Amino acid sequence: MLMGELSRRSGVPVATIKFYLREGLLPPGTPTAATRASYGEDHLRRLRLIRALLEVGEVSVATIRTILAVVDDRSVGVHQMLGAVQYALGPRLTPPTDGDPHWEAAGREADDLISDMGWIVAPEAPARTLLTATLAALRRTGSAPSGAGLHAYAEALSRLAASEVASLEPAGSPESPAARIALTESAVVGMVLHERVIIALRRLAQEDASARRYG
Fold it and tell me: Whole-angstrom Cα distance, residue 6 to residue 146?
């Protein structure tokens, strides 16, 4: 397909596609004339992935370039590739350097929870720091969840995460270029939008519980 059709099918303006080509986010097409090139389904999938990263994940162009380099590196396994996407989505939080007792207690609680759940999580995982920061904030307000309550959340979300990751499996080998792009696109959309679904459902359930108990 020519660039005009690629633009129509992807919903990405021609000028933006040319920008992605200049930035190396999109591989060049097959030349058909001095100033024309043909593009295929791989380009369409890559554009959809870039859009998911930019619009859903709110990821910078520089970070997208890093993610795409991992996606294109066939020596990187699927777990490492999906991890690169998750870490790129962040958030990036800086731990305090003043020996905050709430942070230290929250960090131990987060580490104990991860250990109790048997989760395989890297020490530098952004979500680990996010959990620590959130638990520390809850401690400062005297609202920290009990250990049992935190474990209940973790167990429910562990089952959900296993289901979500299983649903990412594409048709064919997950190591093929098209399948790797499809996996990454699904992961980005799932990581961001599924979190929002969870938040929305929890708030709806809380409103219902409040109405039943206090309404």
Answer: 53
- Which helix or strand (DSSP H or E) is residue 42 part of? helix 41-51
Please tell me whether residue 83 adopts helix, strand or coil conformation. Answer: helix
* Successive 10-residue mean pLDDT values, the chain, 215 residues: 93 94 91 88 89 84 87 85 84 86 94 96 92 93 82 92 80 68 79 85 95 94
21 and 13 Cβ atoms separated by less than 8 Å: no
Please list the alpha-helical segments (H only) found in 55-176.
61-72, 78-89, 101-117, 126-140, 147-167
The pTM assigned to this predicted structure is 0.77
37 φ/ψ angles, rounded to the nearest 5 degrees = -145, 160
DSSP per position, 180-193: HHHHHHHHHHIIII
